[in-house]
Amino acid sequence: MGNWTRRAALLGSGAAVGAFATRALKSRNPSLDGTVDTTAVGGDGTLNDASLLSQTPVHKHIILKQDPGTALVEAIRAEMKDARANNRPVNVSAARHSMGGQAIPLDGHAITYDNGFLEPDTANATFRAHAGARWSQVIQAIDPIGFSPAVMQSNNDFGVAATFCVNAHGWPVPFGPMGATVREIELITPDGELATCSREVNADLFDQSMGGYGLTGAITSMVVDMEKNTRLSPSFTRMPAKEFGSAFEAALNDPDVTMAYGRLNVERASFFEEALMITYRATEDQADLPAASGSGWMSNVASRVYRAQLGNERMKSLRWWFETDLGTVVGGGDTTRNSLINEPVVTLDDRDDTRTDILHEYFVGIDRFPEFLEICRAVIPASYQEFLNVTLRFINTDSESWLSYATVPRIAAVMSFSQEMTLRAEADMARMTRDLVEGIIGIGGTYYLPYRPHPTVAQLEKAYPRAAAFAAAKRVLDPGLLFRNNLWDSYLEQL
C-alpha cells in the first residue's frame, strides 16, 4: 500500500476514516442489482477493507450475483478482458475482511460475489457452493440436515472461497487450515480457461490457489467437506500460561475432544501469566438437536465487558474473571457445533469512529510456546497499543499450500488490538509488529499474511520459504500479472 493510501485513510474525512470494521462489513454487503457498487466505492473512487486503513483507488467495483455456471464465467471473463486491454489488475473478494489491501486491486477491477448457492451431498459428506457463499449461508443450509462445516473461520460473515484463498483455520480439532477440507475448485485462470483443480487434477494449481490470496485466478465454485453436527459439552481448565502448550497437546490427544481453544490474561501487570483452556466433547444425548443459534445474551454481555477494557486495567482484570469464573458457570452449558461457530463479527462492534480493531496472528510450535510468551511480554506492553484479547487454537500440519504457515503442528495465537486512527499509532503498530515478527521467526514460528502490511520483505521470506517459488510460478501462470493485490505489489513482486 502506497503512502497516498495510508495517509488518506488516517487523515481523511469521517467518511474516509469510517467506523469499526464490522460496520464497514455490513455496509459493504448491500443487495444490489446492478454492476457498479456505489455504496462500496467512495465518491473519490476508492475501496477500503476491514482495517479501514487501506483506502485504495479502484477503476470500478462490480457485484456478481449469478449462480455457478456459464453466466458467471462469462461475466468474469468480460472484466478480465477489459482489464487486460487497459493494463489494469483484477481481484475477486467477498467480505474484504483482510487488513492490508490483499483483496483490493490498485486502480483495477474489484469484483465482489453476492450469491449463496449451496448444494449438499450427504452421501459423500460434502457440499458444493458458490465461491462467494458466506459461512452463515452454509450453516443455514446444512444445519437442518444435521451437518456442519468441517473447518471454517471463527466468524460466519466471510466467503467460502475467501477462506480458502487465505487458507484460514477454525477451532475444530485436530484439523489443519480450511484448505485441507476442500475437495475441488473451479478456477478461471488468467488466460480465461475454466479449470477444475483438485489433489488429483491440476494439483499444483490447486496447492498454489490454497492460501494464494486470489493471485492464481478467480474461483467460481468449490466442493468442501462437512461433518456431522453434534451436541457438545464444555470443560474449563485454568493454569499458568507457561503450561498451556503441554496441556493443550495432552487434551488434543483425547479423541473425544472435537473443539478446543485457549485464552491468556491481558492485564499489563501480569501480562500472559495465566491461561484458560476450553475443550468440547460430544454428549451422550445426540437426539433432536436444536437449530443453530446466533449470539446469545452471554455473547452480548461479554462484548460490552470486552470493549470496556480499553484503557482500563481494572476492567481487563474483570474481563478475565468473567471468562474464567462467571462465564464458566452461566455460559458453560451444552451447545451444538453449529451454534458455536455461527457467530458474526458484528458482536464485537466498538462503535468508536476514532479507533479501529487490528488483528495479528502468529503460529508457533507447541514446544516453543513458553518462548513465545516471553517475546510477547517483552514487546507488547511496551507499545502504545491497546491489547484486548488473544485466542489460542491448534493448527495441524499443512504440507500442501505453497504459502503454508503450519509446516509442523502449531499453536495459533489470534491477537486483537484497538488502534487509534492516527499516524502516531500506525507508526507504533508497524514498529511493534516488526519486533514481534522478528522474535517469532527466531523461534521457528510464522505470522499470518492477511493483516496489516508492516513486516519487511525479508521477514516474509524468512517466514515463508516458498514465497519466491510461489512468485515465480505466478509469473508463469499469469505473465501479464492480471490478478494483483497489495500482497503482490508490496511483497511478492519483490521476490
Features:
495 residues; 8-stranded antiparallel β-sheet; Uridine Diphospho-n-acetylenolpyruvylglucosamine Reductase, domain 2; disordered N terminus; 19 strands; Vanillyl-alcohol Oxidase, Chain A, domain 3; globular; alpha+beta
From the structure provided, what is the oligomeric state, counting identical versus distinct chains? single chain
- Morphology: globular
* Spans where pLDDT lies below 50 across 5 or more residues: 1-42
Helix segment tally: 16
CATH class of the largest domain: Alpha Beta
The count of domains is 3
Q: What is the typical, i.e. mean, pLDDT?
A: 89
Mind describing the biggest β-sheet? Answer: 8 strands, antiparallel
Beginning-to-end CA distance, first to last residue: 17 Å
Radius of gyration: 21 Å
CATH architecture of the largest domain: 3-Layer(aba) Sandwich
Structural class label? alpha+beta
Number of strands: 19
Give helix % range.
Answer: 25-40%
CATH topology of the largest domain: Vanillyl-alcohol Oxidase, Chain A, domain 3
CATH superfamily of the largest domain: FAD-linked oxidases, C-terminal domain
- Please give the order of strands in the largest beta sheet: 15-12-14-13-17-18-16-19
What percent strand?
Answer: 15-25%
